[in-house]
Amino acid sequence: MSDNEKGLILAVASSLFIGTSFILKKKGLKRAAASGTRAGVGGYTYLLEPLWWAGMLTMIVGEIANFVAYVYAPAVLVTPLGALSIIVRTNLFVNLNSAVLAHFMLNERLQRMGVLGCVSCIVGSVVIVLHAPQEHNLNSVQEIWTLATQPAFLIYVAAALSTVLALILHFEPRYGQTNILVYLAICSLMGSLTVVSIKAIGIVIKLTLEGISQIAYPQTWLFITVAAICVIMQLNYLNKALDTFNAAIVSPIYYVMFTTLTIVASIIMFKDWSGQNASSIASEICGFVTVLSGTIILHSTREQEQAASGSITWYTGESMKDIDGAHFITLHNSDYFE
């Protein structure tokens, strides 16, 4: 079995765990919000909710599988597979399993156009997988450090951190509760730095287990520190996003933003596209476009739901009429209709 195949299996397995964790954490956040301050406005009562911790445990299992997958395969292959999971009962591949689970477990509607968006994300992800590059061999943490300190990647890191600071200091207080992209942009930018750090750590562990110890190098501990800080920030803002917005929308948008930024960071740092022909690169770009199209469709279904919830109509037997400005009496008992 090739390294890419090992990475493929681990990535698909991790997507199921991680997708399920979204739903468990969302349900935990809902329960916590009913008895305390919501995470979306700075509350931390969810830390006392067992269901949220069950979601965290599920996510940890998925992230461990994902972590090992990055050791064997490039990010261009591993990261897009976060959109896939397997429904064992029907033996079908389903995109964005947390969006589908949210439809059934959280009663958050996923309309027909939303299903089309999910399918588009699947198609794009599969195209990317089929044209993924082979992993480059790195033999020491110093080689990884050389890649991390090249000018192009340092520019990316500076741009990412500057954007995160602007989002936290300026945009979050003003738009965090109304614009889903604020929280998810922070998660995704920090996530891209998390992945390249975790990939470096994975290579270090692999080399150490092979008898070439990398523990004594300061670069190893720097990568570990960066990964820890980025993961903590990701979890914090992901919790805020899940608590504030529909999980069926948070999951796919977060996936696309995280995937895109992670692959960009990996291409810059690890030069994943070096050695690939123009046809393969073009196919991967087409895959990204397809995935992004699916996300736009999913986001548009949320806007349609919000628009629908803002108007009320009633039926008299003859025609549909607006009742803006009318006076209403709420009926709590269906017996009134008999």
UniProtKB/TrEMBL annotation:
<dbReference type="GO" id="GO:0005769">
    <property type="term" value="C:early endosome"/>
</dbReference>
<comment type="function">
    <text>Acts as a Mg(2+) transporter. Can also transport other divalent cations such as Fe(2+), Sr(2+), Ba(2+), Mn(2+) and Co(2+) but to a much less extent than Mg(2+).</text>
</comment>
<comment type="subunit">
    <text>Homodimer.</text>
</comment>
<keyword id="KW-1133">Transmembrane helix</keyword>
<protein>
    <recommendedName>
        <fullName>Probable magnesium transporter</fullName>
    </recommendedName>
</protein>
<dbReference type="Pfam" id="PF05653">
    <property type="entry name" value="Mg_trans_NIPA"/>
</dbReference>
<feature type="transmembrane region" description="Helical">
    <location>
        <begin position="152"/>
        <end position="169"/>
    </location>
</feature>
<dbReference type="InterPro" id="IPR008521">
    <property type="entry name" value="Mg_trans_NIPA"/>
</dbReference>
<keyword id="KW-0812">Transmembrane</keyword>
<dbReference type="GO" id="GO:0015095">
    <property type="term" value="F:magnesium ion transmembrane transporter activity"/>
</dbReference>
<dbReference type="GO" id="GO:0005886">
    <property type="term" value="C:plasma membrane"/>
</dbReference>
<keyword id="KW-1003">Cell membrane</keyword>
<keyword id="KW-0967">Endosome</keyword>
<keyword id="KW-0406">Ion transport</keyword>
<feature type="transmembrane region" description="Helical">
    <location>
        <begin position="245"/>
        <end position="269"/>
    </location>
</feature>
<keyword id="KW-0472">Membrane</keyword>
<feature type="transmembrane region" description="Helical">
    <location>
        <begin position="181"/>
        <end position="205"/>
    </location>
</feature>
<feature type="transmembrane region" description="Helical">
    <location>
        <begin position="6"/>
        <end position="24"/>
    </location>
</feature>
<feature type="transmembrane region" description="Helical">
    <location>
        <begin position="220"/>
        <end position="238"/>
    </location>
</feature>
<keyword id="KW-0460">Magnesium</keyword>
<feature type="transmembrane region" description="Helical">
    <location>
        <begin position="44"/>
        <end position="65"/>
    </location>
</feature>
<comment type="similarity">
    <text>Belongs to the NIPA (TC 2.A.7) family.</text>
</comment>
<feature type="transmembrane region" description="Helical">
    <location>
        <begin position="71"/>
        <end position="92"/>
    </location>
</feature>
<keyword id="KW-0813">Transport</keyword>
<feature type="transmembrane region" description="Helical">
    <location>
        <begin position="113"/>
        <end position="132"/>
    </location>
</feature>
